[in-house]
Amino acid sequence: MPPPVRYTLDQLLVLESIATTGSFAAAARDLHRVPSAISYTVQGLETALGVALFDRSGHRAGLTSAGRQVLEEARDLMARARKLDQLATLLGDGWEPELQVVVDGAYPMAPLLAALHRFIDEKIPTQVRMDVEYQDGVIDRFHEAHADFMIALGIEDGGRLKGVPLAPLEMVLVVGAAHPLARLRNLSRDALADHVDLVVRDSSPSFAHTPRKTFLGTRHVVRFSDFHSKLAALLSGVGFGWMPEHLVTAAMAEGRLVLVDLPAGNRWSYTPQLITRRDELPGRAATLFMSLLRADGQE
Predict the structure, then answer these.
(1) Residue 119: partners with Cβ closer than 8 Å, 6 or more residues away
(2) Got the DSSP string for 10-62?
(3) Which CATH superfamily is domain 98-167+272-297 in?
(4) What is the pTM of this model?
(5) How many Cα atoms occupy the beta-carbon half-sphere of 177 within 13 Å?
(6) Fewer CB in a 10 Å sphere around the end CB: N or C, the chain?
(7) Which residue, 226, 227, 219, 230, is CA-closest to 196?
(8) Where are the alpha helices (DSSP H) in 136-244?
(9) Are 98-167+272-297 and 169-269 the same fold in CATH?
């Protein structure tokens, strides 16, 4: 067990005031105390620490070398104490200590980061935690961690959850420009069966040992944990796959990725949902963050 603290914040406050105002008498006026109370407090601090903080041999007491070192630490402690007071006041005003958000990794980060910037600019004491999952893993993490809200691509909840639609998320079926599929036209789904389908696995523990069936049902499948590693595989020519359009816009513009010519469909659109619980009102920080996100997510 750590030893008890031998000083009080009030003693450090008096020391700080003396150093700031220049004298015991000025500190007494600054703190609205009688001079004898200031002297008594300083003596108590010196006794508690076992060191002389002031040299009283001259006309005006001045800090000793030890006193200057103690003052430096005291100022740091007082700054932290004031920050703690401010935090307590803000939390007392209804701000949650932590805001937890779960997001599907296909959703663009740009609106989330824009909302986060605005949220931080408000000087709110709430700490933000943002977890990225995929497909059913989003829902699982939301329930397991009792997160404040989630952004999912689709959900069946039996009425326990409510969602607000965000801007559509476009998915495109792409392949590397050097891949054989890039040169073929009017492909059938069966024609894709001999090629490697690159997918991002569902991060739900339910699919840890039995992966979810792929959208196209191809025989050769390589699963990745995120879209960024999948993108690298696409660019290297390993196979083909669905990607959020916002992640491949640049590569397509540069000609490094092309759409798979599949008349049955090489585009797919989701409407992401900002989801909360029907039986729980979001906290003050969650409400603010969601309003900022809706403003950016709909632009």
Answers:
(1) 128, 285, 288, 289, 292
(2) HHHHHHHHHHHHSSHHHHHHHHT--HHHHHHHHHHHHHHHTS--EE-SSSS-E
(3) Periplasmic binding protein-like II (3.40.190.10)
(4) 0.69
(5) 8
(6) N
(7) 219
(8) 136-145, 227-236
(9) yes
